[in-house]
Design brief:
Cytochrome Bc1 Complex, Chain D, domain 2; 0% strand; globular
Amino acid sequence: MRMGPGGMMNCSMARHYQAMRIGIPAPYAGMRNPLAPTQETLEAGKKHFLSHCASCHGEQGYGDGPAALALNPPPPNLHGVLRRGTARDDYLMWTISEGGKAFGSAMPAYKETLSEEARWQIIHFLRNL
């Protein structure tokens, strides 16, 4: 496993390895986005992403948001995350919902902050970055 600064494994890779070895935790395992990727859904996802995610992940998802410099570990480039085979709907819903605390990341859990519909909208937006 590749380690990041200070010996800490890249958090997105730690989540990826857990998904590969153990699977996606319940209740997220097997979830599929129920929303159609309409223009309205994509626009709503973009709005939520810009409001809740872009400060760290950057407006285009490259991990270069204004808050990213202060974070250790830094937020991942979402374009790389989305290319992984594990980046299915259930994986992305798990990530957004539970945040990164279990993996040593400052990413907050959004399951109490954003509705399930808003999280699905963000996932559609991410797939169209």
